[in-house]
Amino acid sequence: MKPPKFDYHAPTTVDEALALLGRYGGDAKLLAGGQSLMPLLNFRLSRPAALVDLNRIPSLAWVREADGQVRFGAMTRQRTIEFSPVVKARVPLLAEATRWVAHLPIRTRGTIGGSIAHADPSAEYPAVLTALEGEVVARGPRGERVIGAKDLFKTYLTTSLEPDEILVEVHLPATPAGAGSALEEFARRQGDFAIVAIACVVARQGERCTLARLATAGTGPVPLRLRAAEEILERDGLGAEALDAAARRAAELVSPDADIHASADYRRHLTGVLTRRALTRALGVARG
Amino acid sequence: MADLVSVRLRVNGVEREGRCEPRKLLVDFLREDLGLTGTHVGCEHGICGACTILLDGQAARSCIMLAVQADGAELMTVEGLAKDGKLHPLQEAFREHHGLQCGFCTPGMLMTALDLLRTNPAPSDAEIREGISAVLCRCTGYQGILNAVRAAARAPGGDR
Predict the structure, then answer these.
(1) Which of B21, B65, B131 sits opposite A38 (nearest CB)?
(2) Which residues in A93-175 belong to E strands, given as ranges?
(3) Does the structure show a pLDDT above 90 at B3?
(4) Does A6 touch chain B (CB under 8 A)?
């Protein structure tokens, strides 16, 4: 047996799952798609007393539009998102990012809620949530609360979700008609986690920038919103010089760590290059 | 011994049942409890793709899924490809185009390629490369695999 021993529960409602979390008092782990947790169990890096498997809760898997947002049940599979016409039309940045999440057989199981709650700083979905100013809904014994992207990610693999809460929904604002978006990523091999990725949304009126969003993956402990680079575009417009300046500023804004995959300098360099590419491509599809 | 759980599922069209610990991985259940050793155990953490099977018609890693999670599911493994002693067109293409050397990754490659061709029946070479990047070939025989998948896409029934 690869994984350590654990109690296994497969509740069919969120309330049952919450009761189980309460019963184990922080010693249980939620099992979503399992594409990160199962490897951790197989390596025995994680040794929870219990697994609470969310895969048998039908009310957690859905996609719908409401109030100018596209909303997802937390257990919606990445594969479902990849092939969703609603996502493609209304949040094209998420559709594009999904193609970068590992490989299709991983996306068959991996979920949007699991990826966000796992909060890997090199993962694509947290960067998309940050760029779009999305939010998640957490349910716990004290009821539901909404957490915005900027308040969700605390540090490596750590969110502001409490141990007795479950991430149940993800809300992403629909991209305004005419806006363009792009996700640029560099990884050593197809399907690897990003060394750096840049998620980008821009809207224009001629050469004037009416909306700019830039967020990173792979440049530090949490996804980073590059507000000062966005401000350059909002102030100076969308000419080549402004795009160059925004990309330079993006590289200055990040303080990446060095690790086995890349040096800090290389990640900073990539941040600038990928920001420029993402802006160029997003502007290519933006109208107005 | 921990409490055992009962697992009932369909594999390659046949109802199967077994009892195992909840922590048993699906790939180990297939191999050890059901005797279906065609699905290979490689890295055991979801990277290499050797253990890829179809879960309710979609490719998935059987090494990072629990057997108990597949209770009630419909699986297809490499043993389900050939019918009536006749190789599947994908298998024929792998044989014809030197799509395997040592054969270790082949079950995962075949199931991954089957899912690829079902979702995208006429893939470009770039799309085939992206698709098979989900599985590592330790012989590095990727060109032959690419040729085989391309040929299977053009063969009748390659995506069935």
Answers:
(1) B65
(2) 135-140, 143-148, 153-155, 158-159, 166-173
(3) no
(4) yes
